[in-house]
UniProtKB/TrEMBL annotation:
Keywords: ATP-binding, Lipoprotein, Nucleotide-binding
The UniProt record lists the keyword ATP-binding: yes
One cellular component term from this protein's GO annotations in UniProt: plasma membrane
Protein name in the entry: ABC-type lipoprotein export system ATPase subunit
Protein origin, superkingdom: Bacteria
InterPro entries, per the entry: AAA+_ATPase, ABC_transporter-like_ATP-bd, ABC_transporter-like_CS, ABC_transpr_LolD-like, P-loop_NTPase
Amino acid sequence: MTASFNHPAIGVTCRGLVYIYRLDGYDVVALSGVDLDVTPGESVALVGPSGSGKSTLLSLMAGLLRPAAGRLSVGERDLAKAGALELQRMRASDVGVVLQGASRNLLPYLSAEDNIRFAQGGVPRDRREDMPSARELLELVGLPGRAHAASLPRALAPGERQRLAVAVGAANGAGLLLADEPTSQLDTASRDEVLDALESVHRSGRTVVVVTHDPDVGGRMGRTVTIRDGRVGSEGRRGEDYLVVGRDGSVHLPPEILRLHPPGTLMRAEAAPDGTIRLVPTIGAGRPQ
Ligand code: ADP
Ligand code: MG
């Protein structure tokens, strides 16, 4: 059985999105102008090297951090302008979040079912009727049966715990589910079960955005967006990788090309009549020593 949810899938739009961590004495620019559209009902993986800004982007979409500059909308909401109360309301009913590390999403002293019910506690009254039941959610993530429903999180295997975290993230029936590294530290079989759970949530009519450093996880999502140095570097669709032309006209060269032609290399861009572009490096000029 597939639980059905009456709330429509929610999309995300980022335009020139900037985020800066302000530390003692210096700033870290974690995102330096992200342009990205996630259409309602899509499943997207945010991939890319460690420290590239994936978790920061996910936290911004979740309303856990506030943009320093640029535009960010989640559904109809403009998150750059939203006040604390509006962000809180959004987190309660419009967005489901699975934080990195299953245990951060679960209360250790509550059963699987009660963890889900607890997560549903903050949903506004007028949205409760069409919220899925705890049983439906456990079934959705492949954890049916009384034994699991009554189990404390520590009695579950790591992969099961992570699937419970997905159920808790999806518990408010929101149209957008965000998950940060939901499959890290799992064996292949457990990882695939977590991916099945995410796919079920997606098929139940929601938008799903997953942060992952695992290319296999990216392959299971409809689209992969590679974040590099705080910006969208490239996009993958059906196994093909594409560069993305940024708003300022810039493109990120893939690492293997960057190794051949390091930053500072002078290049001429030549367009052929069929639209193909050739990048021709200028020999002997502009290369850093
Ligand atoms: P990813 O999830 O791709 O590994 P993050 O979004 O966690 O990347 O980090 C992006 C950048 O921001 C990195 O340079 C990281 O060191 C920095 N960063 C992340 N979280 C914090 C924080 N709480 N305080 C300061 N810097 C941070
Ligand atoms: Mg991260």
